[in-house]
Design brief:
alpha/beta; TIM Barrel; 2 domains; seven-stranded parallel beta sheet; five-stranded antiparallel beta sheet; 17 helices; 26 strands; 18% strand; disordered N terminus; Glycosphingolipid_Hydrolases; beta-glucosidase activity
Amino acid sequence: MPTTRARVLVVLVLLLGLLTVAGPRPATAAPTLPDSLWFDETALTVRNGRFTDGHGREVVLRGYNVSGETKLAENGGLPFASVADARKSAAALRALGGGNTVRFLLSWAYAEPVRGQVDTAYLSAATAQIGAFLDAGIRVYPDFHQDLYSRWLFDADSWYTGDGAPKWAVDLGDYPDEYCGICPFWGQNITSNAAVTEATYDFWHNAHGLQDSFLATAQKVMAYLKQNLTADRFTGVVGFDPYNEPHPGVLDSGQTSRSWERDVLWPFYERFRARMDAAGWQDKPAFVEPNLFWNANLDFQKQEGGLLDAGQLGPRYVFNTHFYDQKAISGIFMWGKAQDGQYTGDFGTVRDRAAATGTPAIVSEFGHPLSGTVSDKAPTVLKAMYQALDSRVKGASWWADPAASGPVLSGSQWQWDIYHGRHHEPMNGNPDKVRTAGDAWNDEDLSAVRLDDSGNPVLRQDARLLDRVYPSATSGTTVAFTYEDRSRDGSTTLTWNPVPSTLPNVARLVGTGQYALLKWRSGSGSAPTELHLPASFPTGSTTVVSDLGTAYAPSAYTSTTPVAVTPEPGGTGSRRLLLTDTDSGTAHYALVTNGATNPSADLLAAARSELTAWAAAQ
């Protein structure tokens, strides 16, 4: 007995010693994805007006829409012809496009081709394709997509087409023959085509029980996804977008756009929210969109809205909106290129509406045509949009007023379609109007990606614009963020946020390279702050200057390394910078750049001294 007791005491002493040295390990689920660490793969929630993960970190969702292929018939309303293509696309989106999230398009027409009967083969294929993105470490929010209500409203020889509602839903209505008149842009059908406006009106007023059918199908789709995705995969599903680009079609007598949102649209979202709960999505928010034209930048197109009467949305909803520069797209109302700070006001309005509703915002669609008469504007328009997602302060003013930046906005660019230019879509079922070019839908061309002749995904836009540094998870609260991507407009390098001359050593360190600067206030969690590192920031030539420390070619992550680089989850080769603080409520900063080559210790120290003084003065 004495010998046994002594052995037990020795074991207890050793165990207590190990706990004292190593510290208690945070309680969390074991990672399942390749390259995962202990703080990865937690579900997102909405808290204090921000997306937060299981460690209380503030999360930013960046990525693309996957994809407009869903609008076409060639792959049966699915984004991909196969799961293998979905996996190829997901890996490229992570490694080339820098995305951590996708808005995954689904089709009501293909989910419920016969009234009251969901197509489980379609749902099975969609679930497998969603799983391909989740397996690549990419979060997903599905979207029931529609444009111009339905393809079945349009004649075989029409100039335009639509997507969304199934044929049986259109057959229930006695709609006029579609006609848009003089409509050089497909979106004009939303307000000018009587077939579209009347069918849309019927949906919102539940004529023929259309809305009831839609909601019943939505619940079945969500229940199917919950049941057929593993628990680990379902953790990566962040919410659901109930309805793409809602518009009343026709207003009732005395009704305004604002009262339509209050009396028609918002009750629909409450009904959809109830369906989410019934399907087992209680802990995931609905990504609700206001009236399509609430923030249009053409005065004659703008309609009052923005869910002004919805009150505090709280954690069960996300303020979800789109933004396209219709002035630039028109080719008439905006001459020339976009400039520094072009969209800080528009995106500032998005921030303000989200803050007023007490929930985060996401710009779930933004983009610009990549071919045609206005495509020359795309490099500057997209740069200005990403700039406005990062901060509400234009580059020329950022260093002097970083605290006015506001939250970093989440966003999903339109779009990511690997079949770009390789389609074979009989428009409106017409074998004499097979569309192969661009996005193969209403003459659009916005895909950021295509396949090369070897079948490999390649970017169609400047990688410096798309693959960006952004704070994917902040341990605490983001105070300010900026990224100078040095993207190009033709042969011209666009530098809208130069380092000021008052910081000469920082300017010397950055040189002509790209840089990002994050200011944050630490939280109470132990998980590190993460910034996505683009491919243009190879570990061996990345420099970090922070109050936490300085590093050139940062080392691999350990729990005691304040500045480190490690792969992002999913095994795609994408990487992240990890910044570990050990305090709570303390202001921190970190500059990351690829501008210097093996900077001296003296330069790093001088740059750190300048940044520390700058940060203290703000």
